[in-house]
Amino acid sequence: MLKLPPPIWALLILILTAGASYMARWPIVPWAHSLSVGIGLIAISFIAPVWALILFRRAGTQINSTSATNNKLVTDGPFRFTRNPMYLGLVLLSLGVAVATGAILMFVAPILVFAIANWVHVPFEEAKMRRQFGPAFDAYARNVRRWL
User: Which positions make up the signal peptide (predicted)?
Assistant: First the structure.
């Protein structure tokens, strides 16, 4: 699971839940279905990840979450509010798709994306950052929440 880039596994989850929804004939949750809210969430989901990507490029550090090392600990921009703006974007994107479709099985996608990020990828990355940046990362982690 760590070898696949996070956007790829998030896309695979969306494809699998869409396939399951299709096979189940797209049962809709009426109170959770809103195309405009879903599209809004999808649009918002790109803000923090793109901002983080720009900051990583400017800092000259690795974007690949499975890289062996990182050149710099980035703590500004969206990283002032969340330690994981890119994963937060993936969760919001999958939630936006679920709300836009309204299909009950699509709401499994954001839960799975969150669970895999929170219990597989983030612990791996945080251990890597602790090894590399020690007290600087610990201080950052004490002051900035993992999610929001």
Answer: none
Query: How many angstroms separate the CA atoms of 127 and 136, rounded?
Result: 13
pLDDT tens figures, 20-75 = 999 999 999 988 899 999 999 999 999 999 999 999 999 999 988 888 888 999 99
DSSP, res 118: I
- Whether 17 is covered by a domain: the verdict is no
Q: How many domains does the chain have?
A: 1
Residue 65 pLDDT: 83
- pTM to 2 decimal places: 0.93
Give the pLDDT score at 2.
64
Domain containing 95 equals 32-143
Whether 85 contacts 79, CB under 8 Å: yes
- Please check whether residue 103 lies inside any domain of the structure: yes
| Residues linked to residue 103 through DSSP beta bridges, in sequence order | 28
3-state secondary structure of 71: coil
- Residues 133 and 73 sit within 8 Å (Cβ to Cβ): yes
Q: Which helix (H) or strand (E) holds 88?
A: helix 85-101
Query: What is the spatial distance between Cα 57 and Cα 105, in angstroms, rounded to a whole number?
Result: 36
Contact status, residue 69 vs residue 62, Cβ threshold 8 Å: yes
